[in-house]
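Board notes (copied after class):
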Amino acid sequence: TPHASQVANEAAAQRDRGRETHRDLRFDGSSKLGERSKCRLNKLPNFYIRELRPTDRDQLVALHIECFPVSYESQFFDKSVQGQLFSRVIAVGRPAPRPGSPLPDADQMGGLDRHWEEGWGGGSEEMAGVIISQVSPHAEFEDVVLDSGCQKEDRVAYICTLGVWDRYRQHGLAAKLLRILIDWAEADPSIKAISLHVLTSNNVALYFYEKYGFTRLKRLADFYTINGKQCDAYLYVRHINGGIPPCTWLLKTFQTLKRPLVSVCLATSNHVISVLRRLGVCGMGSTGAAHGGGVITDPNSSVW
């Protein structure tokens, strides 16, 4: 339809503008991020971990255009850099101090060379990777990831995005960001699950999240629209802090049919025993008489 075509054209234009921004923005004094991202690094430079800042917006948009095949609304980036969502950035280069802020501590710093004091105050940073998560009450999520008996105050941390520039991959940065989110969520007793959606064809991401304890909950048809094509997604979840997963359809079906099945089995068992008794195969001794002649009569017996 004309409307669909217009939307597709606008999305393509937005992506092109983002790529242009990606190529033009300088993140250090000597080179451009777009040029340097073409080859992966064998050795990580200095890096440290912090939250997103308003000045990160351009880099954040460029990273999402480079790493993800879907487009994100401007409001998402605004909320992320304004601190309305959980975020952690792996910043590479020389950090720019905020007024009154101390040096990063040992837990925030990484890489092979940690002599931060020598370069403190420069402010030439590049965003190597980022994770963004929205934490909300379970009732506000469209996807059910907790049991229906969960408490009203129970919350879910939804991973909106987790991305690392290609040149910084293969150094465990994505795993480091994910581990930070998991540790942060586990420290909050009200957060009972961490969830996300993954493209069904993204085998690398599927393996990555399963490696870190995420379980595939269900498949969602036509969840993504990529280059005008509808694509399916998997819903993944990791339950924490005693969170209970929702009943699967198989378990719900069993619970629904349990009592009718028990009744049928009891009736069948009683009939078989009655036939055997008439044939003289099954006698009725003192033990049998004490238990109703060997006939099972209690539908709530623990044998079920």
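Comment from the instructor: The two ends are 57 Å apart (CA to CA). The first helix runs from residue 2 to 24.
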